[in-house]
Amino acid sequence: MDRIVAALNEAFAGVPHTMFCVKDTDGQYLAINQAFADRAGCRPNQILGRTARDVFPADLVDAYEAQDAALLTTGEPIRHELEMILRPDGSRGWYVTSKTLLRDEQGEITGIVVVSDDLRRGADAAQHHQGLQSAIDLIRREFAEPLKVADIAAAAALSPAQLERAMRRALGVSPKQLLIRTRIDEAARRLDDTDATLATIAGACGFYDQSSFTRQFQRAVGITPGAYRARQQRR
Questions:
Q1: Bigger pLDDT: 78 or 154?
Q2: Domain 126-234 sits in which CATH superfamily?
Q3: What is the predicted pLDDT for the residue at 95?
Q4: Which helix (H) or strand (E) is 211 found in, with range?
Q5: For the chain, which residues make up each domain, given as ranges?
Q6: What region, left, alpha or beta, does residue 98 occupy, with left being phi > 0 and alpha being psi -120 to 50 degrees?
Q7: Whole-prediction pTM value?
Q8: In Å, what is the CA distance from 53 to each residue of 29, 40, 178, 224?
Q9: Of 23, 28, 146, 215, which sees the most CB atoms within 10 A?
């Protein structure tokens, strides 16, 4: 296993926009790359042997741990899951994460391998696809409006099916997923920075009602908007 971890660590050592780590089944980090350390605000050797809860905000860790528990229970790899992670400047952003189990020669589970790509990097890489960039710009600009996939596709001068394929190829997510995550990202910012009610934030961020907002926020972040705000206020 040590050779496998060392090889993976070497492979991801110089990739600045991709976070990589290997954890044991208790969540302790066995290997990380520099991009991971940059986002944790620590040197690599300060993170090894620690867990996510030791180095990241608790509200983010709840979602990470729920993913790990599901992976360990089902054994099914997690592919292209959107999750919120810290960026090197301390801001929060969306990453596309994949997780898979690490097994020894006997097939016993020994850990979890995690790779997370910065979604903003993916958007930047799509600049030469003018239609796709137009769709992304529309989502960022008008996420609070009742956008439909057909509206986003029209902005890209693509059919809905073409947009779906292009966005999944470039970003690893569907137009609907990107729209929802953009709304949640803005909602999280407002929960942090304003005293607006949950209902007000839900309406301002494009959610149909507070119930829909709560359900989708909890699915993405791991806790309800109210619990998220309470934790942020205690920090």
A1: 154
A2: Homeodomain-like (1.10.10.60)
A3: 79
A4: helix 210-221
A5: 2-119, 126-234
A6: beta
A7: 0.58
A8: 11, 11, 27, 19
A9: 23
